[in-house]
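Technical annex B. To support the medicinal chemistry partners, we prepared a structural model of the target in complex with D-glutamic acid, based solely on the information shown next.
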Amino acid sequence: MTETPHSTAPTIGVFDSGFGGLTVLAALIPKLPRARFAFIGDTARLPYGSKSRRTIARYAVESAQFLVREQGAEFLVIACNTASALALDAIQDAVPVPVLGVIEPGATAARAASKTGDVLVIATDATVQSHAYKAACAAQNLRALEKACPLLVPFVEEGWTSHPVTDEVIRIYLNELATQAATDGLNPDALVLGCTHYPLLRPLIERAVPAGMNVIDSAESTAATAAGMFNGRAKPKHAINDNQPTEIHCFATDSVEKFERLGSRFLGRPVGKVQLVDLGG
Ligand code: DGL
């Protein structure tokens, strides 16, 4: 059992397969500064991006239930692109609170950024195979070309966010994507970072894309959507006290020290003491 919340602020649960989703939490905090945030990174079972829908759904549901049952979350943000792409329905069925994923906000941000109506998406294998971004973009009248970049998550996990090898691999992936786009007759002007880890590679990615290509991180768009839902439809049970500082509680299913060390890089501030949680195998 983990420490039970004492706070009277409404709890927003944020879930990722690892600590990459802290980039989404970083965007949520200024939008909902009076909330209490409970973040869980399922670090023991990362990466999700190479696993099957069934496994991803089982893992993601366990984390979502932890946030709702043990942390009292009244609203969930699924910061993990892979879990949003493959398990959003399963999570929504499993918990009695509103759940927001990152795919639709990402497509909305791409719509706002693209003039040509053609966009590129880079993501994990599982996200690309699900074609969740393609479908969400089509709903916004965008044509999307998706590409899996499976080497990038391990590079970020290794802390190689400005390493020459990472730089070279990004260029190779993006060149392949540009060649495919030309073959398909697309004229893309936006690139969606469809994975929690990729915002950490943004400087390298921005240097590698052609001039005029907008690089989209769904975190801001997700945070704006979350704030709208939370302040509207998902009314908190508790009154919000304006003088209450943002509370952040982080949980991980493994490697708490690594989470504490690297997590601050994703969150942009110290993550504090991270608690270990056992969600089973
Ligand atoms: N969180 C995952 C995502 O956003 C990336 C890491 C993983 O493969 O688990 O797709």
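Notes passed to the chemistry partners:
The two ends are 16 Å apart (CA to CA).
Residues 16-18, 20, 46-49, 80-82, 124, 127, 153, 195-197 surround D-glutamic acid (CB under 6 Å).
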